[in-house]
Amino acid sequence: RIYFQIAGASLLGVGVLLKIKNNDIQNFIPDKYYLGLPPLLLIIIGSVIFITATFGCCGAVKENTCMLTTFAIILLTLLIIQVAIGVYAFLMVGDTQDLKTSVKQLVEKTFNDYNNTKVAKEEFDVLQEFLHCCGVSEPNDWRWPGGRLPESCCASKQNCTIISNDCYRQGCAASSYRWFKNGLDLLGILAIAIAVIEIVGAIFALCLSSSIKNQIRREAYA
Fold this sequence. Notes:
222 residues
């Protein structure tokens, strides 16, 4: 059962990390894709798995069939919830072209307001620093005199120009889309790995529960 506790703690940690990292890019992902939902689900599922694993450990140590059966039922319930969430997420981002277009529109909107509002400037600078990107599609989007670029377009953050060796060449629209898709791929891999662990755990718990019941029956007839 220690493996389930480790898995639960790992999911919880990944969820918290994603929650922190997503704050830098959440304004550039359309609201309908619920960027804040995956980290929250990881935190909740990780916490439930960790607590449930402790519950299962107690059942195994005390040879309590009721606790073991409950442990298995909770794992299978989590599995069903994960599958439902996975199907929903797949349907939500099934149209990749729509996602790309929506992300680019949000990036362009903030880019166009860069010189007009302090909020837009701060948000776009954070985006460029976080994703190591520059402009909407490329650094040339800035069109500043002398080839100058915002300091956030260069790794050194000093005297940044279009010809600087450390200038980021990737556009922020493509980088934002790739970040979001990579995050979904990571969640998919985690979901599959945890699902396998949950299935194995539920089977072992039910087998152990059945074995304990049989042992009790044999002792009763002995």
